[in-house]
Write a structure and sequence with these properties.
alpha+beta, Carbonic Anhydrase II, 13-stranded mixed sheet, 7 helices, disordered N terminus, disordered C terminus, binds zinc ion
C-alpha cells in the first residue's frame, strides 16, 4: 500500500518540482521562446520583457535618487550555480544589498544575479538600446521586502531587476576574476561552487548609476510574470573578449549553452522613462532661483 502510494506520488512530486522551477524551457527548437506561451500563458502577456528601448521615444523624468545599501560590502561567501539556463550567483554569507528610491515604491533586497549572453560579441543582451545588442547583460534580481522572495515573484511591483549591459574592453576587468574562476567550476548543469571573499556588488556594476531607463515589464524566462520594475543602466561594464567567451563554455542539457537571451517583445501601451540624473535638490534650487529672479524683476 505504502509502496503503491510512493510510486504514484513521487513522479507527481518530481513533475511538480520541475514545473514549479520552470526547467522545461530552452532557447532553441520546440523549447524555444516562441513556444513558451504554450505552457506559460503569461509569456503571451502585453507587458513582457525584454524590449528595444528607442531613445527618441523615452520620456525624461527626474526620479528621486536611487539609494544603494550594502552594495559596497564584501560578499563573504557566494554560491555560483549552473542551472542549465544561466550562471546564477546567490549570497550565502554577507549583508544582502538593498535598494530604494528612483521609480521604486518600497525597499528591495538582493535575491540573486545572473547573466544572458550570445554566440558571439555582436549579440547576447536581452534589452536593446536603439536596436543595438550588447555582448552580455547582468541581471541583479531584487525582491520587495514587504512580500518576501517567493510571494514577490507573483505580485505586481514585487521585483526589480537592475540590468547592466557590457562593452568589449582590451583589458580583463579584474573585478570579475572571482566570477571567471568560478565559471570553470560550474561547467555542468546543476553544478555549483562556493566562492569565498567574492568582492562587492559595487565592483561588478558601473560607477555611474544615475543615468538609467526604467519601465514596467516581466521576467524574461518562464513563467514570464509581469511583476518587474526594470532599471536599465546606460553606462556599460567593460569586459574583455576572453571574459565574455568564458560564459559560452558552460554546458546545458545536450551541449554548450552558447546563447540564452529572449528576443525583444512589443512595448504596446507602456512608457519607457529616462532618469536624467538631476537631483531634486538641484531642481528645487533652480526653481527657487527662477522665482527670485522673477520677484526682483517685478519689484
Ligand atoms: Zn535575466
Amino acid at each position: 500500500m505504502i509502496l503503491d502510494l510512493v510510486t504514484k506520488i513521487v513522479p507527481f512530486l518530481i513533475l511538480t518540482y520541475i514545473g514549479g522551477n520552470c526547467q522545461d524551457f530552452g532557447y532553441d527548437g520546440d523549447e524555444g521562446p516562441v513556444h513558451w506561451g504554450e505552457k506559460y500563458s503569461q509569456c503571451l502577456g502585453k507587458h513582457q520583457s525584454p524590449i528595444d528601448i528607442e531613445t527618441s521615444n523615452v520620456l525624461m523624468k527626474n526620479f528621486p535618487p536611487l539609494k544603494f545599501e550594502h552594495f559596497q560590502h564584501e560578499v563573504h561567501e557566494g554560491l555560483l550555480e549552473n542551472n542549465g539556463h544561466t550562471v546564477i550567483l546567490k549570497i550565502i554569507r554577507g549583508k544582502r544589498p538593498r535598494i530604494q528610491g528612483g521609480p521604486l515604491k518600497g525597499i528591495y533586497e538582493f535575491s540573486q544575479l545572473h547573466f544572458h549572453w550570445g554566440p558571439n560579441d555582436t549579440l547576447g543582451s536581452e534589452n536593446k538600446i536603439n536596436h543595438q545588442s550588447f555582448p552580455l547583460e547582468m541581471h541583479v534580481v531584487m525582491h520587495n521586502i514587504a512580500y518576501g522572495p517567493h510571494k514577490a515573484a507573483k505580485i505586481y511591483g514585487g521585483l526589480t531587476v537592475l540590468s547592466f549591459l557590457t562593452s568589449i574592453s582590451p583589458n580583463d576587468n579584474k573585478n570579475y576574476d572571482k566570477l571567471e574562476e568560478g565559471l570553470l567550476e560550474v561547467q555542468f548543469v546543476s553544478s555549483n561552487k562556493s566562492i569565498r571573499n567574492f568582492g562587492s556588488l559595487d565592483n561588478l556594476t558601473t560607477v555611474d548609476r544615475k543615468h538609467y531607463f526604467t519601465y514596467e515589464g516581466s521576467l524574461t524566462t518562464p513563467p514570464c510574470s509581469e511583476v518587474v520594475t526594470w532599471i536599465e543602466f546606460v553606462n556599460t561594464v567593460p569586459l574583455s573578449k576572453e571574459q565574455i567567451k568564458a560564459f559560452r563554455s558552460i554546458s546545458t542539457t545536450g551541449g554548450r549553452l552558447t546563447h540564452n537571451f529572449r528576443p525583444v517583445q512589443p512595448i504596446n501601451d507602456r512608457f519607457v522613462y529616462y532618469n536624467s540624473g538631476i537631483s531634486h535638490s538641484k531642481t528645487t534650487i533652480t526653481v527657487l532661483y527662477v522665482i527670485l529672479v522673477f520677484l526682483l524683476i517685478n519689484t
